[in-house]
Every structure is written in C-alpha cells, then in structure tokens.
Amino acid sequence: MQRFALVTGGSRGIGAATALKLASMGCDVAISYRTQRVRAEEVAAEIERLGRKAVVLQADLADPAQARRLVRESAEALGGLHILVNNAGYSQHAKFAELSLEDWDRMIRVALTAPFVAAQAAFPYMREAGFGRIVNVSSLRALGGSSHGAHYASAKAGLIGLTKSLALELAPYGITVNAVCPGYTVTDMTREALARNGERIKSQIPLGRAADPREVAAVIAFLCSDEASYITGETISVNGGIYMR
Ligand code: NAP
C-alpha cells in the first residue's frame, strides 16, 4: 500500500537519509527545511530519481503555527499522511549557568513543542487512514544528560515522555509512536565536535566510530514500516554501544 510521509528537517543529515530511505521503501515524501532550500531541493531530486513524489516545504519549527501549517500543507500536497518523522533539531553548546531563558525557550519549542503540535495536526489524517507511524528523533543526551546543553537534553528527554504518552493514546487508532536516540552521527551538527575531539569521542564508543546518518535512518524507517506493527512506545538507541554498562 502506498504511504505518504513527512520528515521534518529533511534537507540534510539524518532527516535527508530518512527521507531517501522511506522513498526507497515506496513512500511519497514531504521534507521540510528552515534555511537550506537548495539542500532540500537536492534531496527532493533524489527522491524523484527513486520514482517517488517529493514535496519541499519551508517552516521555522520554533513557531507552533508553522509546525501546524507544515503538516497541513504536506497532507494536502501528498493526498494524506501516514508517517510523521519529527527529526528537525539543532544543538547549542552552552553551560547551564550561561543559558538564557530565550535559549531554553527556543530549544523547547523546536525539540518538544513542534513534535507535539505536528503529531496533533497529523492525527486526524492517520485516524482517517486507520494507520499511522510517528517517530520522534530524540538523542543519547536524553538518556545520559549533557554537560553543555541542559536545554537540549531536557527537551529530548521530554520527547520520550511525549512518545510514550502518545503511544498509549493513539494505539486504538492503529497508530504507533516510537523514539530513536542517535549517538554521535556524522552530520553538520557534529562535524566540528568530531573534528576537534574525534579521537576522544571514538574512544568512548565500543564500535569505535560515529554513525553514518543512513545507519540511524534505517532504524527510523523500520519503525515506519508495516513490519514494525507491534512496536509502540519504545525508545531505541542507535549509538554504537556507548551506554552499555
Ligand atoms: P543537521 O544535519 O544539523 O540537520 C538539522 C535539520 O533540522 C535541517 O534540516 C535543518 O533545516 C532543520 N532545522 C533546524 N532547526 C530548525 C528549525 N528551527 N525549524 C525547522 N527546521 C529546523 O542535524 P542532524 O544531525 O541530522 O540531526 C537530526 C536530528 O537528530 C536532530 O533532532 C538532532 O537533535 C538529532 N540527533 C543528532 C545527533 C548527531 O550526532 N548528529 C545525535 C543525537 C540526536 P535547514 O537545513 O534548513 O537548516
């Protein structure tokens, strides 16, 4: 059966890899970007080369109204919505004592409020289809905290609570809701840290390297698939074993 998917932040990194993986599985895919239109259009062209429809939409997800509009426009352009991947995000290196209320507030809006609003806007389409998949991209920081981004870790931990709550509420409608916690993944977000502290970071990872975005996308896409029909409310780490004890 044909599926329609929205991947927020699909212009680069994990979101772009996820959009391409979903397209390779037969989905028509809407991707959103905030600033990088050209990168988003390059991803869309690759989706089309796979023979699927691609839709490119702009939204600043710090604004809940834009998150709601993004879902509506995606569903209208695709003809429905079965899959929502709440992936868009950013990191900000800041010590707790130096974090402003504005820093905190913006992070919560992008990483926690936007997934809530997008899921709420997507729910009627999924309910109508009798099928839905929501995957929230959290982080290893949700599980282990962060010494340089308390707002990021807090928002990402909140996203796990949202995931479990929606999984409980939406199960009766055939909608599953899961979270994926990537570890260090080679994207624009981590390029600088990996260049600066790569050896120290890799020494903490049992598999000895950062992830390729496609390794994270494969897990997200599986959770979006029909095969993952009996998994809901779960949080799956893709982190090279960094939190094994
Ligand atoms: P990335 O390469 O920096 O890409 C971030 C994406 O999010 C881009 O598409 C960007 O749009 C979009 N975005 C950022 N802020 C936005 C906003 N305010 N409104 C709308 N879109 C926005 O990041 P990534 O590494 O792939 O990360 C993807 C997700 O994985 C994030 O939620 C991140 O927290 C999580 N994660 C990443 C890692 C890692 O090691 N990379 C680890 C754990 C968790 P533009 O391209 O237009 O700027």
Structure summarized in a few sentences:
By secondary structure, the chain is α/β, with parallel strands linked by helices. The protein is built from eight helices and seven strands. The structure holds NADP nicotinamide-adenine-dinucleotide phosphate.
Question: What do these coordinates show?
Answer:
The protein is of the alpha/beta class. It has one domain: Rossmann fold. It has 8 helices and 7 strands, in the order βαβαβαβαβααβααβ. A 7-stranded parallel β-sheet has the order 3-2-1-4-5-6-7, with helices on both faces. Helix 1 (13-24) links the parallel strand 1 (3-7) and strand 2. The protein is globular and about 45 Å long. The mean pLDDT is 97. The structure holds NADP nicotinamide-adenine-dinucleotide phosphate.
CATH fold title: Rossmann fold
Unreliable segments of 5+ consecutive residues: none
Estimate the helix proportion, in percent: 40-55%
Cα separation of the termini: 41 Å
Name the CATH superfamily assignment. Answer: NAD(P)-binding Rossmann-like Domain
